[in-house]
Amino acid sequence: MDIISFRTFLAAAATGSFAGAAKRIHASPSSVTERIKQLEYRLGAKLFERDKRGCRLTAAGRKFMGPAQQSVRAWEIAQHEVSIPENFTKSISMGGQYALWGAELTGWLATARKQMPHIAFRVTAGASARLNRDLSDGFLDIAAMYDPVFRPDIGTEKLFDDRLILVSAAHEDNWRENYVRIEWGQHLGVEIASRMDIEPSAGLVLDLGKRSANWLIEQKMSGFMPERVVMPHLKNGQLKIVPDALSFDYPAYICWRRDVDPQIIADLVLSIKACFAA
Description:
By secondary structure, the protein is of the alpha/beta class. The protein has helices at 3-15, 18-25, 29-43, 59-83, 103-115, 128-137, 186-196, 211-219, 227-235, 262-277, and strands spanning 48-51, 54-57, 90-97, 119-126, 142-145, 154-160, 163-168, 181-182, 205-206, 222-226, 240-241, 248-249, 252-257. The protein has 10 helices and 13 strands. Helix 5 links the parallel strand 3 (90-97) and strand 4. Helix 1 (3-15) crosses helix 2, helix 1 (3-15) crosses helix 4 and helix 2 (18-25) packs across helix 3.
């Protein structure tokens, strides 16, 4: 089993180009081309159609997606399982969006380790796009995020309701002059730009999660942030809500792979929801 080639294949399928795959897996474009070529030779089938715009999966490539994902997931699980001490009987890979790794999730992790001493945890933080991809590819078992991709093989339950609000560290009347786009999901970004008639002039897109609030404060700028995230800054006056600006529903979710032990998932979901409800 050539896991490196499988990962290369999955990266090319996800990015739509061999160059994009090279960046994702930190390899040279020539290495990606050679790995795909060797994989196609071993399988006896062409996996991609390539042109100047990038690459597209062939019918054979689409059929190979499932086995490749399962193989990579099996290898990741095997690596993790053999490395954990003998007193742990299960392992869970947990991800959380940057904006959610505050007191709630860190507190949950400490509590979960005490309540579930037989489970070994691997935790990570990331943007929603990466968390969705890692859930789909099997690198994560469960994740908390604002912008999930709803899929039949991924279970989803709402954690809490939130909304994106326009806040500013400058004078609210001049917010357009200091507006910066903050990445909270492609579809919502398009809706905000359309309904607010915003054309960002800062030449900057932030994908820093809750750290984006610090940028707004330090640089005296404005942008959309989850209300729950910026509430402390609103209370101390570092940020102010722009009057009469639209707000956008932005609930947070807990998502999990349906092929993970359902009892463990049920316990984890219950404990994570309790932390955010406290």
